[in-house]
From TrEMBL:
Annotated keywords: Heme, Iron, Metal-binding, Monooxygenase, Oxidoreductase
Keyword Transmembrane: no
Protein name in the entry: Cytochrome P450
InterPro entries linked to this entry: Cyt_P450, Cyt_P450_sf, Cytochrome_P450_fung
Similarity comment: family membership: Belongs to the cytochrome P450 family.
Molecular function via GO: heme binding; iron ion binding; monooxygenase activity; oxidoreductase activity, acting on paired donors, with incorporation or reduction of molecular oxygen
Amino acid sequence: MVLTVKWHGQYGPIICIRFGSLKIIALGSHKVTHELLEKRGSNYSSRPKFLADRVSNGLLPTFLPFREKWKSHHRLHTSLLTLQASQKYQVVQDVESKQIDLRARYASSQIFSLAYGKRMPHGDEPEVRELEEVMRRILESISLGEEVFPNVGALYEAGTDSTAIVLDVFVMACLDAVVGMRMPTFTDLPMLPYVRAIVSEVFRWRHPSPGGLHHAADEDDIYQGFLIPKGTAVVANHFSLDTDESIFDHPFDFEPDRWIRNPARCRSALLGLVVVLARDCIWVGTLFLWAYDIGYAYEKGRRLEVDPWDLTQGIGVRPTPFRASFCVRGEKRHQIISQAWKEAEKDVDVLLEQVGCRAPMGEA
């Protein structure tokens, strides 16, 4: 990722990277990305052929070409991921968040509930393991450097310890002042600007797909004297865009307050449709800040350090597994969490009826 930033600095906002016989044109500035992928979007709406497409029998929407099948998938997905639709799903997210033990379990159970009408209460069910294995193979198949034709892929710590401690205390103070001794809900979000800033900064600082998703030119195109041949893979290099020093000061630092100091300037750099459901998933992570004191893990009295650049490689990037300490912030919060889970509606049929995804029980 850092290497592509260096290349853009050396060669400009448009660079061509060759992997065997496959060429990828990477876009490293907001201006060029906007000009090509938005203003000329009709010519770059297709996807190059990927092995991952074959793995899914041509049904993985991310890699479908811009034809009728893609349009059908797109209509379905956009109807499910609008702001209005995602607000309906909050009843499911609220239930899953009350079982506040595993972040991975929360996400998988929420998606299974909405997509298949079945909760995953433990997170290690056969369906979850099978799906994770399929996704692992797909992500491995599109990793950078994978020599499979025609395939190509794509500071955990906030400065010093003292800065991180001050930030943690400040966030907790915000939560306690607004929320108090109850579990946070989605209605608290407007009153927690710093938490919203943290969510935005997480997306910028460690974009889940820093290499971007690949587009393909439907026809030959010429831009600023560059020929982009038909079928060539074109990708917005999010890592370069998100570390653009003309927009983000100290871009490699985790600084949520940049979104409060200059929100218009930062938000102007956001590209494309923001998937509201994904942001809501991260928002539920505020429950962890409310419920736990989170810190380093220790082993035999020695603090276990975390390398902020120790990341998995592929189209989806995440930190490699690391250990951390989660301690419930007092017995009162423990009782509130336990009681909330005890009283939560866990019947998926009832939840989906509330969402509007299923007809009321007893109706044909």
